[in-house]
Amino acid sequence: MISKKLVVVLVVLYLIGGLVHLGRMYFHREEPRRCIIAMEMNYTKNYLVPHVLGKPYFKKPPLHNIVIATFFKIFGVNEWSARIVSFISMVFVSVAIFCAAKSIIGVDAAFFSAFSFAISLIAYFNYGVLAETDMFFSMLVFMSIVSIFKNRLFLGSVLTAFALLTKGFPALHFFYLTLFSYALLKKRLRDTIFSKEVVFGALFIFALFFGWLALVSDGNIHRFNLALGTLLNASGSRVLSVEKLPALAKHIIKFPISFYLRFLPASLVFLLLLRKDFLGELKAVYNSSEDIKELLLFAVSAFVPNFLIYWIVPDGRVRYVLVLFAVLSFIVGVLYYILEYYSPYEFNKPFRRLFALTATLSLFAMFFDFEFVMGVDYIIAIFVFFASALSYLYLPKIKPEALRLFAGVVILGVALKLLYSATYGAYLYTFYTNYRADGRKVAKIILSKKPKYVMTDGGNLRLFVYVEKYLGMQLHPLSSKRHDIAIVRNKKVLKNIFYKLELPDHVYYVGRL
């Protein structure tokens, strides 16, 4: 059994890898939109209707933005407080995996199952450390479908309702496809569909969602239709693209490969299924343990129908099925459970070679940081070097083989994450356009004019997220009825120009209308 000391070491290393430089990089990708909405919620005290630069935004419901807005109030408006929401969500998913699996496959296998998701490329390197909706949404969806496995269907419906208020209608197919598939495999479809928990749960989902729409519309049927139609279009546009048939064949090949790669390093465990003897052990466990059989049936019920939706259409993206990586972790846990008593491989040599490689890469990272970044990231590279060296020396002392695999996978994942942060992350931060400084400068110029109302014609949200942050007020769309300060791309609309800002996408002018 895994020792408490080793668990503490692995958890501490994991937290170090995840939290180092969490708030360093400027807001990028979809982060500015999420954070502008959160800031404007706090500025206007309107938490029902998301706004971007003063315009209603209905492509996603408001729940995730409300959570970020809450963290902004507690920890201040900054990158760390926006991204920590996703990191906490990732940890919650991992804890939920462990809690759901430990009584079935044991503590060690449950820990490995949880870490297999927590350390994956798509979670640990991407959506678990970004202020985007995907990880928070996946947490709610995963907990809702685990509620099906635990036969707490009304709770699952409540969590589905919250997921629906986070990212829209995909929450429904994840929950109900899993529910009906699992009930079908269990031969309880009729009883499940007409059970009180499912019926009242569906009514709760309907009431909460359409109650929010009613509050948003404020009695205006056109606003109600706009909000609902925008949500339907945003959700449907992801999957209803079958007309793009030329791209379909390429997508069908690429999608599962991309999925597998983004589940690394734990997805390497699936290579065990290429061995007939290991498959035989899996079949024996499946037939002998009713609990493991139930867990595998549930994982298949949740994974297959939801995966197929995004696999068979060209616009399906791997991040849309982020929650399915957590589902697949249950199967990884079962494979580890078998490895605990039947290991066809010796993992010492492969992992020692990998740690030798990470130690070598850390030396290159030190050189890279000294030569190109010229920051303090070389300290991270030094830490990785010594961690890799110690792992190289002490890994042979960890027994049995399954536990050696466990420690090796987690330490390797953390080492790669830290090297990624010390090299590519440091490079991006150094050479990326410093929108934080640009936004602060624009806000300072505007505040010197003591404005009560600031407008814009839109543009690069990576700039405007910092303008709003340092202004401490909401930006509004241009209006011919007002003659206040504005940030625009068309200088002809300004009577007086105070400042000109040249960025890669546009030239922005600050002045008075």
Question: What would you say this structure looks like, in words?
Answer:
The chain is mainly α and 513 residues long. The protein has 21 helices and seven strands. The strands form two sheets. A five-stranded mixed sheet has the order 4-3-5-7-6, covered by helices on one side. The chain has a two-stranded antiparallel ribbon with strand order 1-2. Helix 15 runs antiparallel to helix 16. The radius of gyration is 25 Å and the shape is globular. The mean pLDDT is 91.
The radius of gyration is: 25 Å
Category from helices, strands and their pairing: mainly alpha
- Beta-strand residue fraction: 5-15%
List the total number of helices: 21
> What is the strand arrangement across the widest sheet?
4-3-5-7-6
**DSSP strand tally:** 7
Short structural summary:
By secondary structure, the chain is mainly alpha-helical. It contains 21 helices and seven strands.
Key features of this structure:
single chain; mainly alpha; five-stranded mixed beta sheet; 513 residues; 5% strand
Please give the structural blueprint.
Elements: H1 4-19, H2 31-44, E1 51-52, E2 55-56, H3 63-75, H4 79-105, H5 107-118, H6 121-127, H7 133-149, H8 153-167, H9 170-185, H10 189-193, H11 196-217, H12 221-239, H13 248-262, H14 276-288, H15 290-311, H16 322-339, H17 348-373, H18 378-394, H19 401-431, H20 435-447, E3 454-456, H21 461-471, E4 475-477, E5 485-488, E6 496-502, E7 507-512
